């Protein structure tokens, strides 16, 4: 009960101060228990009285803060700033990567660098605006301040400390979001002319754009859904049944899309690549197809591993919030 109380308070505290403040609150709680019930084991009723005496979690958290924090609720502000940082850094790197694919003669003047800086600034401001709007909407329609509005609040409203298999690997989610954003920027800015450089200046298109173009919109939709899903995980801070089912669905759709694209007839310009590399077309074609098959097998195994992990937990805990 005490752990859940401290965990709920921590949701309204900034990361930089959370540990220190929670230690002080825990100390105050045990001081109250000791003063009123002496040393030893405390009953649930005694702990409940002590928690009630300290007050509602959000009010306790706010009492340790100098002022109301932001237009975005305190429960969401850390996730908001984290996502803003990821987006800005990803956008910067994505724009730089994109500029590498531009023709060399377009990079030989100061106007090129001015345009790049302007594009970075414009896209960054647009991204900040969209993210801020999303969080304002979340805070308005899914606030975490309901405990405060109820003067006779119940301990049943406290958030439970995540179990071990409920905890998300935050670094993994952040890294995945980071690379998705970089790919989105680069993918949509190089006019979809994905190619490889030969002899520094010649580009041979890897993909047959007539075959690949119909998939562009679906790739963008899937990536956008995955980004929103990652934001949800960062805000939620733990796995639940919805997020596990969503992960299974996203992985399933991703597998179908990747397999469909890679196996689309004539989508790869194998002959052009072979000629550019001065390779025998038949030999290179067979080698290329084999590589594609190995890629698909490895990708499917990875997807099955992720999906199976979530299915096992869902099946083993059918009535829990996992």
3D structure, described in words:
Helix 5 (77-100) runs antiparallel to helix 6 (110-141). Strand 1 and strand 2 (202-205) form a beta hairpin. A two-stranded antiparallel ribbon has the order 1-2. The protein contains 12 helices and 2 strands. It has helices at 2-10, 15-37, 44-54, 57-63, 77-100, 110-141, 146-149, 170-189, 209-236, 241-262, 270-276, 281-316; strands at residues 195-198, 202-205. Residues 146-150 and 191-203 have low confidence and may be disordered. By secondary structure, the chain is an all-alpha fold.
Strand adjacency order, main sheet: 1-2
Number of helices: 12
Number of beta strands: 2
**Order of secondary-structure elements:** HHHHHHHHEEHHHH
Distance between the termini: 20 Å
User: How much strand?
Assistant: under 5%
Helix coverage percent of residues?
A: 55-70%
Largest sheet: 2 strands, antiparallel
Point out poorly predicted stretches: 146-150, 191-203
Alpha-beta classification: mainly alpha
Q: What best-fitting shape do the alpha-carbon axes yield? A: elongated
Short description:
The protein is mostly helical. The chain has helices at residues 2-10, 15-37, 44-54, 57-63, 77-100, 110-141, 146-149, 170-189, 209-236, 241-262, 270-276, 281-316; strands at residues 195-198, 202-205.
Give structural attributes.
322 residues, two-stranded antiparallel sheet, 2 strands, 69% helix, elongated
């Amino acid at each position: 009960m005490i752990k859940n109380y401290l965990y709920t308070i921590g949701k309204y505290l900034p990361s930089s101060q959370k540990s220190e403040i929670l230690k002080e609150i825990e100390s105050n709680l045990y001081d109250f228990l000791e003063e009123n019930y002496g040393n030893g084991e405390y009953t649930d009723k005694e702990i409940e009285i002590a928690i009630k005496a300290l007050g509602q979690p959000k009010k306790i958290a706010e009492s340790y803060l100098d002022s109301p924090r932001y237009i975005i609720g305190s429960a969401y502000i850390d996730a908001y700033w984290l996502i803003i940082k990821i987006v800005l850094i990803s956008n910067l790197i994505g724009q730089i990567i994109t500029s590498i694919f531009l023709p060399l003669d377009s990079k030989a003047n100061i106007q090129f660098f001015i345009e790049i800086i302007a594009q970075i600034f414009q896209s960054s401001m647009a991204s900040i605006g969209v993210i801020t709007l999303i969080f304002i909407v979340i805070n308005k329609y899914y606030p975490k301040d309901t405990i405060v509005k109820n003067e006779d609040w119940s301990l049943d409203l406290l958030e439970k400390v995540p179990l071990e298999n409920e905890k998300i690997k935050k670094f993994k989610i952040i890294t995945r979001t980071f690379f998705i954003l970089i790919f989105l920027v680069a993918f949509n800015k190089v006019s979809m002319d994905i190619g490889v450089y030969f002899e520094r200046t010649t580009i041979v298109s890897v993909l047959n754009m007539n075959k690949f173009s119909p998939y562009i919109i679906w790739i963008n939709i899937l990536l956008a859904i995955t980004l929103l899903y990652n934001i949800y995980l960062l805000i939620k801070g733990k796995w639940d049944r919805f997020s596990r089912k969503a992960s299974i669905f996203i992985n399933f759709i991703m597998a179908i899309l990747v397999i469909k694209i890679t196996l689309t007839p004539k989508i790869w310009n194998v002959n052009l690549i072979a000629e550019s590399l001065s390779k025998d077309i038949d030999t290179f074609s067979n080698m290329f197809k084999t590589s594609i098959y190995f890629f698909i097998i490895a990708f499917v195994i990875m997807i099955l591993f992720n999906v199976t992990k979530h299915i096992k937990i869902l099946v083993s805990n059918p009535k829990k919030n996992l």
